Amino acid sequence: MYECEAHTPEVPFGDCFVTRVRQVLASVPALEGQGNKEPACLFQASWSVELTRSTMMEGAIHRGARSGLQSNFMAYAN
Asked: Which of 23, 40, 56, 78 is least enclosed by beta carbons within 10 angstroms?
């Protein structure tokens, strides 16, 4: 398991929030019926946004964080 906390003061309202990401990589048995006997792995990522001070831009902050993290993690899928 890997956990990190990202501070992004260079983005708009970056001083109002912290993004936390948790990544888990686990070994799992080979997939049945796939003709593959090799072990596989499971990658799971979760994230949260913590507001460090009150702002009316909370919705925009959450949408922006979700968009950025989704595009980042899609690189793993491709």
From this structure: 78
